[in-house]
Amino acid sequence: MKSYTEYIWFNTSKRREYINITDKVEEALRKSGIKEGMILVSAMHITAGVYVNDAESGLIQDIDEWLENLAPYKENYRHHRIGEDNGDAHLKSLLIHHEVIIPVTNGKLDFGPWQQVYYAEFDGQRRKRLIIKVMGE
Amino acid sequence: MKSYTEYIWFNTSKRREYINITDKVEEALRKSGIKEGMILVSAMHITAGVYVNDAESGLIQDIDEWLENLAPYKENYRHHRIGEDNGDAHLKSLLIHHEVIIPVTNGKLDFGPWQQVYYAEFDGQRRKRLIIKVMGE
Amino acid sequence: MKSYTEYIWFNTSKRREYINITDKVEEALRKSGIKEGMILVSAMHITAGVYVNDAESGLIQDIDEWLENLAPYKENYRHHRIGEDNGDAHLKSLLIHHEVIIPVTNGKLDFGPWQQVYYAEFDGQRRKRLIIKVMGE
Fold first, then answer.
1. Pairing verdict, β A128-136 and A37-43
2. Can you give the residue ranges of every domain in chain C?
3. Global pTM?
4. How many Cβ pairs closer than 8 A exist between chain B and C?
5. Contact flag A78-C59 (C-beta cutoff 8 Å)
6. How much is the average pLDDT of B111-121?
7. CB A52 within 8 A of CB A100
8. Which NCBIfam families would you find in this protein's record (chains A, B, C) (predicted)?
9. CATH class of the domain comprising A2-136
10. Do the chains contact at B59 and C1, CB–CB below 8 Å?
11. CA triplet A61, A111, C137: central angle to 5 degrees?
12. pLDDT tens for residues C53-92?
């Protein structure tokens, strides 16, 4: 089994932001030389997520509104007693999930026609990191 | 590391449908000859999901009602401005998640007594695809 | 590819409980001797989950309240017609998800500074099981 690991840093200008990282994942796969296996893409912070869905700007706004509706920003989270204000970002991270596994076949992401990988930032405006690990042969 | 890949097609008669695919996953595992490792089962569309839970018809209706409650069908998603009407199906896919990883031990799915794999269709009545990739030794 | 499998049993005193299992996962990794690869941590029951987030007691209460809000205990789930009373636990398991994949680099969990692995019990007070499978080289 071969493996290849890469870290990507983000520092978003907005608190919440959705960044298409499909090309970064494809680049890591190309560098790895792996033809058959899978790729783990995982946020290294607990207030961010990774998901696979459509690169359509209206949908991305829908997703943001939906996440804010189900895991809203509010002042009185118990987590805020230790001086934080990002309780909602933790819940959004749990809802969207923090990692995905992508199949690799014939040296390519084995995706359907509309699948794209997104990094979802829920507490941005500071440096945060993501790991891409390709494993296979 | 050995690997084995299979694609399964669905064309559900209803818009939303929950299909137990445990036997398909077991069949792919048997064909792979792999005894130790894991299986990635992943929807290749962004309006479907894969989950592991109980094969109990009442619960499946509860799950469907719960998903509709948290990610309801409605007309005014921004995503619909490009001519779609399936915004809810994208959100349901994100909520239930689009893939699972199943452990393989001694040539079997290493599941607890009630675990079953389901394909969850949220925008059916057309051909859609799922990937099963077995990896290990 | 090497692999190493371990099972952990739980029997919580409360119905819902959140248990930090990071040290158990690290111990399994150490025993495996694997330096590069990944770890699958997966609940073997359909009324429990596994997630990665912060070891902060206020946040854990926030997570519990949030899960109860989005997937509440109630009497009239259809699943209860077969004599169960844990419909909410199935939905909470789907919401939080039942497994995570953790990257392994240089013989360590390749986590960010605050990432911890939790077992989330939603229908406890009885023996339940979790699988840890380390795979790599």
1. antiparallel
2. 2-136
3. 0.98
4. 82
5. yes
6. 97
7. yes
8. TIGR00149_YjbQ (TIGR00149)
9. mainly beta
10. no
11. 115
12. 999 999 999 999 999 999 999 999 999 999 999 999 999 9
